[in-house]
Structure formats: C-alpha cells, structure tokens
Write a structure and sequence with these properties.
alpha/beta; Lyase 2-enoyl-coa Hydratase, Chain  A, domain 2; six-stranded mixed sheet; 10 strands; globular
Amino acid sequence: MDHEHLVYTKDDGIATLRIDRPQELNAFTWDMYGGLIDIVAEAAADDEVRVLVVTGTGRAFCVGADVRSLESGFEDKSKLAAGAAGAGGAGRKKNAGPRNGRPTGHLTVLLQKMNKPVIAAINGIAAGGGLDAALACDIRIASDKATFSSVFVRRGIVPTMGGTYFLPRLVGLDKACELIWTGDLVDASEALRIGLVTKVVPHDDLEAATEELAVKLAKGPPLAIARSKGMIYKGLEMELERAMEDIMEAWVALSRTEDHREALSAFLEKREPVFRGK
C-alpha cells in the first residue's frame, strides 16, 4: 500500500517504516496517522515480517501531529480522543478521533500489542506524539544527535498517545512528572542515563546498529519471541502467582513446536538453528 510521506519496505524478515516528511520534521497529518496505523497493522499480520523498525528521515524522528492540521482534523475539537479504547463506559459518548474514526492512541496500542519486536531508530528530534510513539516501541536505539520532549504541556494538553502510561514505567514516577509537566528538552546522553532509550550510538552508526539488532532478532525463534513479548507486558500488571502460571503454559506450548526441536538439534549438532515459526 502507498501512503504519502510514509515509506514501507521489507527485506529478509525485517520491515522498516520510515516517516518521510523531513521539511516538517516528520510531523504527521491525520491522513499520515491513518497510514501509520494501516502499515503497522499490515506488518503485524504479515508472517514474513519478524521485526519492525520505525524511523524518520532528516533531522527528526517525529515531532507528533502537525499543529496546523489539528483544527481541520476534528469536526468538534471537544471530541479529541486521547485514549485508545474507542468507546466510553455506561452513559459516556463514544470517543471520537481524527476523521478516519480511530482515536489518537490507536497507533501506540498497535505497536505494543503486535507480537513482534519493534525497534525505534531515533535519528533526531522525538517530541510530542513522536516521543510517545517511540516509547511504545520495545527497544529504542538513539543517535547521539537525538533529543526528546513531551511537549504537550506547552500546548495546554496532556500527552495524547501514551506518555503518561509509558514514561513512569521507563524513567520512574518523579522523572516522568518532571518531563511531562515541564516539556523540557532532554538530550541523548541524558535519555540514556534515565532509561528513556536502550542505547545511544554515533549518528552515522544508527542504521548499522539498528540493522545488527534487527537481523539478530529476525533470526531468532518468532514463536518464543512473540510469546515472551506478550508475557513481559502483561506481567507488569500481574501478580507473581498468575505470571508463573502463564510462564508454565508458555513453556509447555513452546516445547511442542518445531522451533524448539530445531533449537535442540542445532545445539547437539553444534550449528546455528534455522527457525521457521512452527
């Protein structure tokens, strides 16, 4: 599928989604936002894709929504949907999002829920919804030129794509409060220090470092990786006893797969395993 300002490619199990609107610092319009959702959903459903890389073109990863498109993107500004639920509880109106009908948190939910690793290759500025989207990825590799800002407070609103959910889990409660309440800019070294990103590399090495990790994950056992991703995130909200039950269920299921038998054979034969996701 073709979407303006979005480039989607696949190569050897690795899908790359590049936001390509550099003249606007990769700010997305609501049409682009719909395209991002479509592409992530496609990657999630594609058995040929084992890893998704999300990155940007130019000097920004993504600065979130194009402010100039906000007014035209909603029929009624009061209906801005910050969550991903799509419908409220009893007595509440259904959430309304952009004109495509999808709420503004839908993208971040898709990134978290897809049963494949998602790597954010943060090439530059990550602000607002762009920061939130990066936080929703599983691993964040940042250029040493990258900067980060939860800029929403400067627009008089709250993070609309998950910042209040992700930041406390990554950087701790007090640091999350500071970042969200001030909108202050954080450079790459500080982002690494506080746990906002996984790794920082020289800017010119970002593509190679990301590819190295993506290739390693793409060669891994997709069933085990998918199961463990779901367990990791569910486990954050789960009591230990229930988590241990899930672990045993997963072990039993995976022990019956061809991938598990291939891993044992490769170990005994002193060779690299070839996993087929079966």
